Amino acid sequence: MEIKLENDILEVTINSKGAELSSITGKETAVQYLWDADEKYWKRSAPVLFPFVGSLKGKKYIYDGREYPMGQHGFARDMEFEIESQKNDEAWFLLRSNMETLVKYPFEFELKVGYKLEGSSIKVYWIVKNIDTKELLFSIGGHPAFMCPVSDDIKQSDCYIKFDTEKDLKYGLLNSDGLLLNDVHTLKNENGFCKIDEHMFDKDALIIEGKQASKVSLCTPDKKPYLTVIFDAPLFGLWSPAGKNAPFVCIEPWYGRCDRADFAGTLAEREYGNKLAAGEEYKKEFTITIE
User: Fold this and answer.
1) With 9 labelled, which of 66, 173, 209, 216 sits at a CA distance of 20 to 30 A?
2) What does the domain layout of the chain look like in residue ranges?
3) Half-sphere exposure of residue 40, counting CA atoms within 13 Å on the CB side?
4) Nearest-CA neighbor of 228 among 285, 288, 286, 146?
5) What is the DSSP secondary-structure string of the chain?
6) Torsion on CA atoms 45, 220, 151, 241, rounded to nearest 10
């Protein structure tokens, strides 16, 4: 089921499956800023990643001495959320653990995803509540795909990414199993701008750790930002499908990530994992702004 939010500037649609943003449209210009999930390139628009971000070593994890199989990015993105509340410019979605989730993820939880329009911005909220009697172990992240370019007369490699730092960014790459390699690469940053190279995503996503940036913009060929994502996450990913010349770039704030290729630990030992005591809540947010 899709619902619509709007104000004087934006019209946004959200699918109750996965509580996933499915469109962001500027009312005055009729420009669509979010990828439309065309399977030719990628069948999603902005999935919520929970209770895992990325791939696990051997596609499984170990908890309390037992192995559990788990696919990439967890399961929330493929589940139907309850629409908890809805106004003209705000909506909240709820996913609770159930018999299906407990088989593959032995924790009782509530996940709330909220969207609120504020002028030309969309506030995205995540609230995880531990309704179990034991500690909850999880990761959570976003994977929104933004149109790049937004005009048919230019191509992606004409555009720029802008960061709120002028330092070069260090990033990691994934192997064929979606696991992080130990090699560190450098993304050249000239006065805050990085030109998108046509081979930038040939080796999958760029994993940028260590809170090197908290504001990332997509820019036109004249370096004018047209969309900005602001977050407080410890790491983020940049991605577009390799070799497909897809007309979008994902800017992904993460509180968690895939395993390293040489990881051999338990669920509690995964890097960037989050721990939540019984009865406690975990709240995070990020903002998408149309410039």
Assistant:
1) 216
2) 2-290
3) 8
4) 288
5) -EEEEE-SSEEEEEETBTTEEEEEEETTT--B-B----TTT-S-SS-EEBS--S--GGGEEEETTEEEE--TTBSGGGSBPEEEEE-SSEEEEEEE--HHHHHHS---EEEEEEEEEETTEEEEEEEEEE-SSS-EEE-EEE--EEESSSSTTS-GGG-EEEES--SPEEEB-B-TTS-B-S--EEE--BTTEEEPPTTTTTTS-EEE-SS--SEEEEE-TTS-EEEEEE---SEEEEE--TTTT-SEEEEEEEES-PPBTT----GGGSTT-EEE-TT-EEEEEEEEEE-
6) -40
Tokens 């449209």 found at: 25
**CATH code, 2-290:** 2.70.98.10
Report the C-alpha gap between 220 and 225 in whole angstroms.
6
Model confidence over 258-287: pLDDT tens digits?
Answer: 999 999 999 999 999 999 999 999 999 999
Q: What does the alpha-carbon distance between residue 162 and residue 44 come to, in Å, rounded to a whole number?
A: 24
| 187, 207 contact by CB (below 8 A) | no
